[in-house]
Amino acid sequence: MRRRTKIHPLLRGPTLPGLLLLGACASRPPPPREPLPAPPITAPAPSVLPVPNAPATPVNISPAEGAAHLVSDMNAPENRLLLPPTHNVAGARYIGRYTVCVDEAGRVRSAAVLESSGARAVDELWIEKMRNWRFRPWIRDGQQLAFCYPQRIEVSSEP
Q: What is d(CA 27, CA 138) in angstroms, rounded to the nearest whole number?
C-alpha cells in the first residue's frame, strides 16, 4: 500500500512553467553576496538655537498707530516732496499707498509701494523720503519691537 503525501494548500493547483517546487529538484546554493559598504559617517546636524536679541518678525499696526509713532516733522524742508518738473503739471494729483517697516530703534528698515501713485518717479521719491523718517519705538510688554504699517500719501502740483 502506498502512502499518500500531503501537499500544502498553496502548492496545489496549476503551476507556471519554470516554477520549481521546493524539493522538486536539487540546486546549488546561491553564491555568497558581497557585503554592502558602510554608510558614510556624517557630522550631526547643528541644532538651531534662538539667537539672543535677534530681530523678530515686525508687528503689523494700523496707519493711525504708525502716524502716532512718527517723530519726523512732515513739514520740514527735508521731508517735503518736490515734484519733478515733468510731473508738476497744473492740477496734477498723486495718491499712493506704501508699506513702511521700522526697526526696534525707530529707523525705517524698508519702504515699498502697495498701490502706485500712477507715476513711478513720484513713488521712488516718496520711498527715498520715507527712508529718512524717524519713529518712536513700538513697545509691547516692555520690549521694543519692529513694526510695519501702510501709509497713504497724497501730493498735488504747486499752482
A: 83
Residue-range domain boundaries for the chain? 59-156
Grade residue 90 by pLDDT with cuts at 50, 70 and 90: confident
Cβ-Cβ contacts under 8 Å for 150 (sequence gap 6 or more)? 63, 66, 97, 98, 99, 100, 114
What's the grid cell of residue 47?
541644532
pLDDT at 19: 47
138: buried, middle or exposed (CB in 10 Å: 19+, 13-18, 0-12)? buried
Question: Are the CB atoms for 131 and 81 separated by under 8 Å?
Answer: no
Q: Single out the residue of 102, 100, 157, 147 nearest to residue 127, CA to CA.
A: 100
Amino acid present at 2: R
Give the global pTM. Answer: 0.61
CA 17/CA 27 separation, integer angstroms: 17
* CATH class, 59-156 region: alpha beta
User: Can you tell me whether residue 10 is helix, strand or coil?
Assistant: helix
Chain mean pLDDT for the chain: 78
Residue given cell 538651531 in the structure block: 48
Q: What is the pLDDT of residues 103-154, one digit of tens each?
A: 999 999 999 999 999 999 999 999 999 999 999 988 888 899 999 999 998 8
